[in-house]
Specification:
By secondary structure, the chain is mainly alpha-helical. The chain is built from one helix and no strands. It is rod-shaped, with a radius of gyration of 36 Å. The model has no long low-confidence stretch (mean pLDDT 91). This is DUF5132 domain-containing protein.
């Protein structure tokens, strides 16, 4: 039983020693990776915003064209009915 606890103490001490050595290395390695990931995320967000803006403009154009066609059709009907009334 003491041997099991002794092994755990040895493993814990080895991990603590390794952590003090590996943490600075991991930190210096991870920082550029995180920065690159952050930049990639920002780029993705900018592209997404651009795509959404283009889609919004396309939808607005379609709606405006539909409104124009509806107004043109109504105006043509009004002109046709006023011409028939003049006869």
């Amino acid at each position: 039983m003491i041997v099991k606890h002794f092994e755990k103490i040895i493993v814990g001490a080895a991990l603590a020693a390794a952590a003090t050595t590996l943490l600075p290395i991991a930190k210096s390695t991870m920082r550029p990776l995180l920065a690159a990931g952050w930049e990639a995320g920002e780029g993705l967000m900018n592209r997404t915003r651009s795509i959404v803006q283009i889609a919004k403009e396309e939808i607005e154009d379609i709606v405006a064209e539909a409104q124009f066609e509806r107004m043109k059709k109504q105006l043509d009907q009004d002109i046709a009915s006023s011409e028939q009334g003049d006869r």
